[in-house]
Structure formats: C-alpha cells, structure tokens
C-alpha cells in the first residue's frame, strides 16, 4: 500500500492494513521489553529489576525531545503529502532527520555530565544508584544511533510501509531476546549487558528502516533539508503533546518510585516495576494502533476528506476498548501467574505485593483507551494544544493531585489506585474537548 491509497481504499481495509502491523510490531516490542525484565529479574535479581525501574525515567527523558521532533514532523509531512506537496515533504523529512541526529549527539554528551548526579539525587540507596548508572550509561554510548528509531518507524508508515515497519520492529525484538539470553542466562553477565542487548538491537532497527529510504524506494527520500523557522516551531508545537507525555510520565514515575521507596522499600519498587512491564503491553498495543493511523488520518484531513477521518475515529474506539477490556480481565483474574513470570522462587514478598498492585492498577484500563484515542486524533488533526491539555491532565496534573492525597490515607495502596482515578478524571476533560470541537468544527471532529 502507498500513501495515495489512504484516500481511495475503504476505511476498514486501510485501518487493518495500517493498524494490524502497527499493533503486532508494538506488541512484539512490548513482549521483548517484558522478556528483558524477566531475564533481569530471574538471572540478576529483584534488586536489578528495581534499579532498571528507577533508571528508566531518566532514559526516557533523554528520548523525549527526539520523539517530539519525530511526531511533530510526521504529522506535518503527512499533511503535505495529502496536499500533493512531495518536494516540501522531502525537504522537511530530511531536515527533521538531521535535527534528531543532532539531538542524539547532544544528549549523549549532556547525559554523561548530568545523569550520574541526577541518578544519585533521585536514588538514595547507593547500591541501587550504582546499578542504575551502569544500566543508563550504555544507552548514552548508543544514543546518537538509537535516537532516530521511533522517527524512522513513523516515516515508514507515512509511506504506507506498515508491513515493513512491523518486520523491522520484530527483528529488533527477536535480536534483543537472543542477546538477553546469551548475555544474562548463558554467560551470567551483569545489568550493563541487558542495556547493551537493547541498544544493539535498536541500532539494527534504525539501519533496517533507513535501507529503503537511502535506496530511494519510497516517496520520502533524503534531499536538501528545507525548513523555515515557522515550520520548526510548528513541529515542536505539534510534537509537544508527545514530549510532555514522556517528560511528565518520566517525572511521575520518579515521584512514584520515591513514594514507593519511602513507604514500601525496594520490594514495592520491584512490584511496581513488574506492573509497568505488563502495563507496557497494553500501552504499546494502543500506541501501535493509534500511531499507525496518524498518517492516514492526517493525509485525509490534508486532502479534505473529513468523513473518512471520522470513520477512523469510530473504528479506533471499538478496537482499543476491546483490547483494554481483555487486559483488565487478565490482570484481575490471573495476577499471580503474571507476576510469577518475573520473579525467582524466593521472592514471595514481592510476589504478594505485585498481585495486589495488579488488581488495584487494572481499573485504569476502563478509561485509558478513550483518552489515548482522542489525544492521538487531535494530534493527527494538527490540534496540538488540545492534545497537550489532555496529556497534561492525564499524565501530570491528576496523578500529582492523587499522589498528594491518597498515599497519606491508604499508604502504598493509594499509589496503586492513582492511575485509575487520574484516568477517570481525564475522561471528563477529553470528552469535553472533543464535543466542543465537534460543535465548533463539525467537519473535522
């Protein structure tokens, strides 16, 4: 499928041609992240699992700016292609890719200067801090090579190459699993090699994704970078929702970990880490669907075909709601079986807390899907301010308020119910924005 067919094929056919490869790719990516956690927990120990969970927000902060450029430029590029402006789209694509490479180099250098101090500041346990730094610094070595991964994945989907994107992500996942097994299970090496396995695999993914672009087999190809100041600001503006989502999510993860360390120690942090590994399975599935649909939605809006965009929205709601309900039931009905995957036989205390955490966390999925669908479609419609508003309430404002109140009353339990409360409150905001948009501009909603 090529990008022109975004406007000519039936909506359902486009949906499944784009969403299924995106879903499979992201689910496989999430599974390899889970398997990474399983290898770390089983072959290094729960202390290493806790350290990874503490370090990961720092790593995500480093990726956040690159993701902002990736998402912001992808929407602009798809809109230009929908308007038939291929030359401008290629100039913008080339400029955005150069920006992302530059960000990777800069953040690698800044990371080595700032990350050790930041980790020490955030993690008072010296042993955990040392393990977290060992994990983080491997990613910093590879940052220039792996920073473009999420961007080139988006660019492939813009060109209608969803299947190629899927196989690229699957290749990354398979190599990561093989290297995890070799380094951690076979050679019994330390946490640095878990990070090395992931970094090498992501580098391979970038090389695979760039191959058809470099060989000029796609609509998007490298040309002389063409970008104006206003377009640059537009990219940062439209990608701001993704940026603040990453930043606020990382910030809140750091705050949650601090609460957990204070109220429940390393056991609570390890339990929360397992919940996050499992949670990533649903998040990546939903992101896989919604990110894959942003190019056809933006393309059709650029082409003036708003009815097809509305059809994409309704179908997205049905599919994401179904997936979310299945994940909710799995967490509620089989928490012990899920938690046991990550733990050694002597980790009964962590297992017990994880079972409780999963059951308390699961109701968040009743609300997550709708907030994500609305926010994603607003981004695809180039309405960054509305998307950013939803994200700030979902990922920062309501979680911060919940953490300020409920742990004081319910101890650790108050932390684990925060996502459900925040999600329920955010639904009120997101549906209000969506309905207001429908009244103001019914042709776009």
Automatic annotation (TrEMBL):
Q: Which GO terms describe its biological process?
A: response to antibiotic
Pfam families assigned: MatE
Q: Name one GO cellular component term.
A: plasma membrane
Q: Which InterPro entries match?
A: MATE_fam, MATE_MepA-like, MATE_MepA_subfamily, MdtK-like
Specify where it is mainly localized. membrane
Q: Where does the record place it?
A: Cell membrane
**Entry annotated with the keyword Transport:** yes
Q: Decide whether keyword Cell membrane is in the record.
A: yes
How does the entry describe its membrane topology?
Multi-pass membrane protein
> What protein am I looking at?
Multidrug export protein MepA
Tell me its family. Belongs to the multi antimicrobial extrusion (MATE) (TC 2.A.66.1) family. MepA subfamily.
Listed GO molecular functions? Answer: antiporter activity; xenobiotic transmembrane transporter activity
Cite the NCBIfam families for this sequence. Answer: matE
CDD domains for this protein: MATE_MepA_like
Keywords attached to this Swiss-Prot or TrEMBL record, sorted alphabetically, are: Antibiotic resistance, Cell membrane, Membrane, Transmembrane, Transmembrane helix, Transport
Signal peptide segment: none
* TM ranges: 14-35, 55-79, 91-115, 135-152, 164-187, 193-215, 311-332, 360-380, 392-410, 416-434
